[in-house]
Specification:
This protein has seven helices and seven strands, in the order H-H-E-H-E-H-H-E-E-H-E-H-E-E. By secondary structure, it is α/β, with parallel strands linked by helices.
């Protein structure tokens, strides 16, 4: 396993393999789009922090729905792509969405958010528990936390988790549950294809939860 400093450099410099993919309507029924739609439907309230916002598609689609969104990304190339996409949106969307280049581990937002999204981000981190600890720190007791990670038990084609600077962690439901138990409660796993079938394995593990906070 590489160290945090090296991984940070990799994440800043790695290419964005999803650029334009999820923006193409031809992908409407693909797994990435289904995941995006699932996450968006889980959002409650008015404000969202989108950790690891990528090329901005989720943040912008939430902005179109009237949510105030702060998209956080460490990668300047992806950040530029997100801002490029945002610049083409209507005025009200541009007012609803901001993108900031920050390492979430050292970033302390001034605002509290109704939702925190961490979608397809933990697999890129050396110590996922540190990210979850930071989410717990910045969340309130009522902040809805929405997490997705690739499911190691489902064949997704190429072994993306073996690429340096890309996927360096593997997750099963049990592993993620064990990580979440320390800081979070009301942990609920969801199925991206059939919400009533929680046992079916899909390409993404999807979880909603809330931070454990003392009274």
């Amino acid at each position: 396993m590489i160290d945090k400093a090296t991984n940070k450099i990799n994440q800043i410099n790695c290419p964005d393999c999803l650029y334009h993919r999820t923006w193409n309507t031809a992908w409407e029924n693909n797994d990435d789009r289904i995941r995006l739609n699932f996450v968006i439907k889980q959002v409650e309230g008015k404000s969202v922090m989108d950790i690891g916002a990528g090329d901005g598609i989720m943040s912008i689609e939430l902005g179109r729905l009237g949510k105030f969104v702060c998209g956080v990304n460490i990668n300047p190339t992806e950040l530029g792509q997100a801002r490029e996409h945002l610049s083409k949106e209507q005025d009200y969307v541009r007012k609803n969405v901001i993108f900031v280049q920050e390492d979430i581990e050292s970033y302390f937002p001034m605002a509290k958010y109704d939702n925190i999204i961490c979608s397809e981000m933990l697999e890129h981190t050396v110590v996922p528990e540190d990210i979850l600890g930071k989410i717990h720190m910045i969340a309130t007791a009522t902040t809805k936390i929405i997490i997705t990670v690739p499911n190691r038990l489902v064949n997704q084609g190429s072994p993306r988790w073996e690429l340096p600077g890309i996927h360096i962690q593997e997750f099963t439901k049990d592993r993620l549950k064990n990580m979440l138990d320390k800081h979070f409660k009301d942990i609920t796993f969801h199925n991206m294809y059939d919400p009533n079938n929680t046992k079916e394995e899909g390409p993404f593990i999807m979880v909603t939860c809330y931070a454990k906070k003392s009274n």
